[in-house]
Write a structure and sequence with these properties.
single chain; alpha/beta; TIM Barrel; globular; disordered N terminus
Length: 317
């Protein structure tokens, strides 16, 4: 039976639909060539962690084996939060590794990366939320890889203004912080983090460094409605976010939130078109899209928009 628009976007599924296997467009072709195995070996030798592995990213083989890119996860591999969507292990972290920034920078050199993403577990046990190590990592990468663009993806760092300031003073090329889901579902999906605090971090980051673009991500399929997705887009634009990524939520284990709906590729395409109409400079939207997916293309898009904006201002002057 043909389904109407209202049913497609309801965010709800029937008991029968819950039993349906993952759709064809979510099947991943693995590609474990020499690039993949080489990068994995290098990460282990340098005692580095990647969110690609820890969060069970569906694109790890494409990024490591084909695009030869990776997202480094600093501050250890134990998170102080237990968000109901995330596969990263939780618990009490160990002490800080102050040599980690240099090892990350060395790995960026060995991989010859043009763009690097640096993320981290949440460290609520630290007064600065990990901002100092983030800043030192940015500085180390800049020193050893002056032509590599740097994207950072921190937690909300407790919402402390001084922590955000310390991070932004190191001047990453893109500040990425994910709201993860819509306003209504945030208390169910995220641990300790709040919707408003995430928006505040994005807004304050832009106020501190107006020329550094900001980015955020939402995952869908947890029970949100289309109207709530569009509201989240508007909230991000109201807080000066330029880049957005939208992907399908996939349940990491039986202990995590269940998938309420698998969105079709054409629905993701519709959201992408809506995002551009709302003023985002770049949008990645698709079933397997994650926050760092094609991040190298996003920084180029943001730079191009900045250049065009500058040229327009010059003409008007």
């Amino acid at each position: 039976m043909k389904r109407n628009k209202q049913h497609e976007w309801s965010g709800k599924v029937s008991k029968k639909e819950e039993l349906i296997r993952k759709p064809e467009w979510l099947k991943i072709k693995l590609n474990t060539n020499d690039n993949y195995t080489g990068l994995k070996k290098m990460m282990r030798n340098k005692s580095l962690h990647t969110v690609c592995e820890e969060a069970k990213c569906p694109n790890i083989h494409e990024c490591w084996a084909v695009r030869k890119t990776a997202t480094f996860m600093i501050l250890g591999d134990v998170c102080t939060r237990a968000c109901r969507f995330c596969a990263v292990k939780t618990g009490q972290p160990t002490e800080l590794d102050w040599e980690e920034p240099e090892r990350v920078a060395d790995s960026v050199s060995l991989m010859n990366l043009k763009h690097v993403v640096v993320t981290a577990v949440a460290r609520d046990d630290l007064k600065d939320g990990g901002a100092t190590v983030f800043a030192e990592t940015i500085k180390a990468i800049r020193r050893k890889n002056p032509f590599t663009s740097i994207e950072v993806l921190p937690s909300d760092m407790g919402g402390v203004y001084e922590n955000i300031q310390k991070l932004m003073e190191a001047r990453p090329d893109i500040l990425n912080h994910n709201i993860e889901t819509v306003r209504r579902l945030t208390p169910t999906v995220r641990a300790r983090a709040t919707y408003e605090r995430s928006l505040e971090l994005l807004r304050r980051s832009r106020e501190l460094q107006p020329d550094i673009p900001t980015k955020s991500s939402i995952m869908i399929g947890i029970g949100e409605t289309k109207e709530e997705i569009l509201e989240a887009m508007d909230d991000l634009r109201d807080n000066h976010v330029e880049i957005i990524t939208i992907g399908q939520y996939l349940q990491p284990s039986n202990k995590h939130l269940k998938v309420e709906k698998y969105y079709r590729p054409e629905e993701f395409q519709e959201l992408k078109e809506i995002a551009f109409n709302k003023g985002f400079s770049h949008c990645e939207s698709g079933p397997l899209v994650r926050s760092s997916y094609h991040a190298d293309e996003q920084v180029n898009s943001a730079s191009k928009k900045k250049q065009l904006s500058g040229e327009q201002e010059a003409k008007e002057a």
